[in-house]
Amino acid sequence: PVHLYGQSCEMDEIVSIAKEHKLKIIEDAAQAIGTQYKDGRCAGTIGDIGCFSFFPSKNLGCYGDGGLTVTNNPELAERLKIMRVHGGKPKYYHKVIGGNFRLDALQAAVLNVKLPYLNSWSAQRRKNAELYNKLFIETGLTAGVGGTEFNDENKVLLPKAVYRGFSETANNYHIYNQYTIRVQQRDELRKYLSEKEIGNEIYYPVPFHLQECFSNLNYKQGDFPNAEEACATSLALPIFPELKEEQIKYVVDTIRDFINK
Fold this sequence. Notes:
Elements: H1 11-21, E1 26-28, E2 49-53, E3 67-70, H2 74-83, H3 105-114, H4 118-139, E4 179-182, H5 186-195, H6 225-233, E5 234-237, H7 245-260
């Protein structure tokens, strides 16, 4: 499963399916470091292996490329350690095919300095998201968070923190690696925001089944309409911790002006 945008997947159901069919679970927690599931467990620690990214744009980013895998299984841990050094153990004796996946000391040093700030940065991202939600509702562009259908009351669809309030210990119910809204004139809005010097990004423009690398599977437009609509309407807005209230208000006002013009 992929813990997208900073929120955990529904892991109880995934674990149940995996047990029924004797499957292993590899969690993609690249956008969800520190995110807690509804029972308080952290994303990336529930399945057999958890994968994290330290790319600079992530909530905990290093100065270049970097990442981490975690597991509670000693055998998997040993295999991962061997694979990260070209598959060699001892050195130059290769049991399996691996690669050079070691995190260099410079990147580790950057992460070591930034790690103590992660929870406070995530908390500020949640605060920014709450302000976005409040302002979007006040503009009349949406009736609330979690909408799935466009209509006169919901011209902007806002993300919902689905596990908020499930547990007193799960304060990191969402870390908002992205704050992603959905709008019908997404491409036109994106151009308008860029003209106003407001950062934005599309995560993601093409669904898996329409990617060229999977063309041999013979899927076509219309086979997965929900995925296609999400790719056509999703737009991520600035959410970084250092955003000021007036900047968030400017973003919302600009979107309101575009939709109401």
